């Protein structure tokens, strides 16, 4: 009993010590001057980027950050991921400062929406933003007719005029995007008219032009200048106003975790496509060579990871169906050769399906055409080689059977009596032989097979 109480006391002491060690650090961050969290959003905006921003926003708030600098350098990305990031920005209880940097960076397409949604927006010199016209998986959104005057936005909250020549579905996508970015512009007091131009006509602006047209709040060459210019500005946090106080605060960079990096790799359309190919080939090799194990295990893992990536990406299921059809036709060609008809059709279906699999107009979310071309070329070369070997095998004389033994020569391995049997080596094989002319032949005599009777060859002296 005494030892049990001592053990419990030690465990309680360890817990209290751990809490005492960990708690003051957070208390010091909350009560002290604080810091500014920096989150870098580079590359296409997809599921991995949305999860990274969501996790780091929550972590920065828990750590006591006074503000978040969301550094942008993106060509755009998926609408669903963009809206997830914007929802995190709108729900943030600390200021979010969007900053397009370094020099040469851009906030195109989805990046423009994120810039408009942030409490403060800034750009470094030699950067640009805009080209926010949405694209849909069914095809490109038609642009307005340049020969017709641009529709003027109404003073009320009515929907923008549809683009000339656009179908109903494209109009809905376009009008929804325009209304969305205009609502963000009105929320932050930015230029709503230019926001509509960025969506309707893919307009772009440089950093100085964006500051002049009130699209962003200011231009800052570096983080120190960014915080200095942001300090003292009043922003809207939910239903209340707040003053940004960030001048002179240290900046803490929040790097993406291993899960975010892993998702970023597998949700790259080219990587996801290669995982699917590797999975299919692995399973096919295991099917044709049962018991090899490694191809089947590796193929199953690659296929499952590739399918997981597909459900996070905008997949064209017609392209996926064509790829499956192509694989089926190639397998059918291997099992039942048709002089290339099924194989060529399979290669064509697989190549077309690969091109259709992902939407190439979504920035950063298209399969590299060179990879598709390389795989198609390898498939064509392999199919051609198989067909060449099949045609060549049809012209080769059969190795076994009476045709092969029509006029073979060999030698005796032992003496052959007139009516007895002996062993002879013919065509590199050992045969039991008898004398056709019923004469004795010595060991090593050269003979020629004349006919076959079951497993016995009748020979005569050569």
Automatic annotation (TrEMBL):
Q: How does it sit in the membrane?
A: Multi-pass membrane protein
Q: Which UniProt keywords apply?
A: Hydrolase, Membrane, Protease, Signal, Transmembrane, Transmembrane helix
On whether Protease is a keyword of this UniProt record, the answer is yes
**Gene Ontology terms: cellular component:** membrane
Region Disordered, annotated ranges: 137-163
- What is the protein's major site of localization? membrane
List residues of the NfeD integral membrane domain.
Answer: 270-386
- Transmembrane ranges, per UniProt, are 262-284, 291-309, 315-332, 339-359, 365-390
Q: Where is the composition biased (Low complexity)?
A: 151-163
Q: Please state what the protein is called.
A: Serine protease
Q: What is the protein's species of origin? A: Oleiagrimonas soli
């Amino acid at each position: 009993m005494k030892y049990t109480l001592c053990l419990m006391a030690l465990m309680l002491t360890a817990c209290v010590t751990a809490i005492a060690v960990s708690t003051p650090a957070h208390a010091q961050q909350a009560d002290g001057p604080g810091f500014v969290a920096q989150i870098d959003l580079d590359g296409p905006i997809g599921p991995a980027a949305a999860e990274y921003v969501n996790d780091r926003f929550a972590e920065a708030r828990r750590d006591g950050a006074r503000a978040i600098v969301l550094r942008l350098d993106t060509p755009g990305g998926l609408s669903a991921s963009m809206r997830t990031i914007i929802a995190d920005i709108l729900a943030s209880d600390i200021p979010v400062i969007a900053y397009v940097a370094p020099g040469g960076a851009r906030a195109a397409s989805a990046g423009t929406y994120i810039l408009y949604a942030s409490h403060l927006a800034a750009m470094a010199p030699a950067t640009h933003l805009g080209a926010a016209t949405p694209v849909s998986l069914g095809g490109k959104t038609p642009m307005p007719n340049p020969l017709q005057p641009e529709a003027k936005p109404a003073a009320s909250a009515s929907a923008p005029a549809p683009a000339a020549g656009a179908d109903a579905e494209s109009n809905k996508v376009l009008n929804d995007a325009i209304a969305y970015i205009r609502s963000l512009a009105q929320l932050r007091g930015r230029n709503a008219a230019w926001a509509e131009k960025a969506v309707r006509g893919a307009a772009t602006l440089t950093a100085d032009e964006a500051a002049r047209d009130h699209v962003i709040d200011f231009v800052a060459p570096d983080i120190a200048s960014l915080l200095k210019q942001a300090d003292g500005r009043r922003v809207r946090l939910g239903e209340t106003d707040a003053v940004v106080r960030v001048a002179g605060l240290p900046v803490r960079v929040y790097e993406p975790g291993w899960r975010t990096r892993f998702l970023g790799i597998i949700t790259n359309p080219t990587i996801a496509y290669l995982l699917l190919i590797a999975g299919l080939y692995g399973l096919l090799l295991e099917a044709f060579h049962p018991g090899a194990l490694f191809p089947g295990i590796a193929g199953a893992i690659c296929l499952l990871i590739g399918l997981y990536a597909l459900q996070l990406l905008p997949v064209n299921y017609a392209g996926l169906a064509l790829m499956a059809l192509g694989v089926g036709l190639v397998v059918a060609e291997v099992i039942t050769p048709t002089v290339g008809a099924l194989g060529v059709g399979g290669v064509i279906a697989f190549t077309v399906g690969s091109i259709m699999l992902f939407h190439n107009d979504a920035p950063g979310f298209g399969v590299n055409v060179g990879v598709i071309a390389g795989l198609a070329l390898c498939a064509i070369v392999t199919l051609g080689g198989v067909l060449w070997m099949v045609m060549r095998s049809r012209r080769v004389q059969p190795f076994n059977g009476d045709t092969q033994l029509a006029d073979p020569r060999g030698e005796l391995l032992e003496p052959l009596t007139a009516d007895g049997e002996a062993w002879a080596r013919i065509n590199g094989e050992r045969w039991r032989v008898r004398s056709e002319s019923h004469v004795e032949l010595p060991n090593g005599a050269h003979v020629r097979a004349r006919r076959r009777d079951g497993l016995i060859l009748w020979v005569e002296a050569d």
